[in-house]
Amino acid sequence: MKRVSLTQYLVEQQREHGMIPGQLRLLIEVVARACKRIAIAVNKGALGDVLGSASSENVQGEVQKKLDIISNEVLIEANEWGGHLAAMASEEMDSIHVVPNRYPQGEYMLLFDPLDGSSNIDVNVSIGTIFSVLRKVGHTRGVSEDDFLQPGKHQAAAGYCIYGPQTQLVLTVGNGVVAFTLDRETGSWVLTQSDIRIPEDTKEFAINMSNMRHWAPPMRRYVEECLAGKTGPRGKDFNMRWVASMVTDVHRILMRGGIFMYPWDQREPEKPGKLRLLYEANPMAFLVEQAGGAATNGRERILDVVPCKLHERVSVMLGSRNEVDRVTAYHQQTE
Ligand code: AHG
Ligand code: MN
Ligand code: MN
Hints:
By secondary structure, this protein is of the alpha+beta class. Helix content is 30%, strand content 24%. Helix 2 packs antiparallel against helix 3 and helix 5 (217-228) crosses helix 8 (321-333). The chain binds 2,5-anhydro-1,6-di-O-phosphono-D-glucitol (AHG) and manganese (II) ion (MN) (2 copies).
């Protein structure tokens, strides 16, 4: 079997489909290389002294794990010198990281959740890195936080790397979704799936059920109907999965369908949700839509949401189209 590498895939996208300018190609290759380094750290576990918490909190008041910090540093270090970026933003940094003056500035901006699913690090369950690429619009010199506040539909590329039984990179440049598997012997990313499609229907939902009593009525209605099974209004039995690593839950949905939800709840009513719009919801919504699925916040398409701040949160419902349409309709009806 002929093996297609990440480099070959990107060159072909650039040459044949005009999807990828040179700077973007370099950017994706650099992110993929950084993910290899993170994978090595993740795999070492206790042997590399990377487990456990650091003695710090991020801007969102969450205790940082050692691997959150290591992964963030790896991504920054790998990306700042190439000349392809103007600035970066991360879950683990209060404000944006502008490319230092000693390096040329490029036209792209990279956003990431360096290590997603942090609560799973110490229990050896799959975790990942999520990234989103925006282009700096306008020709003004310099870059500010405002440049990052673009709706997700303007993403130039998005993807994630999952550190699981296999290390895989799942990517979209706006021309479908593809997956590469890391070949540890050769160190290269090999294309293992092209044109990933999410089935329109599903019998599998993913949500943290322990929050049920705090949900809004449309959310409860949707899940209660799933739980009612064959003799309920849906007329079929559902299965439930919740890994608590968004990367892993979304990966399962890309592979075999399903719906993933992290809705608003009434404990902190002013917070629109738990997940962050710019570096969690947007890249996943881009991937899911490119695979034929849907992604909303219950009211509108996630990719249409205009962000007001860097670490903005959002409700997330994504995956198999018919289920996302249904839960979204329930929310819209009650408005
Ligand atoms: P992170 O580790 O980057 O903070 O993200 C964790 C997120 C997401 O990966 C997951 O779906 C969700 O939080 C899990 O939340 P619960 O612990 O509430 O289940
Ligand atoms: Mn996360
Ligand atoms: Mn994280």
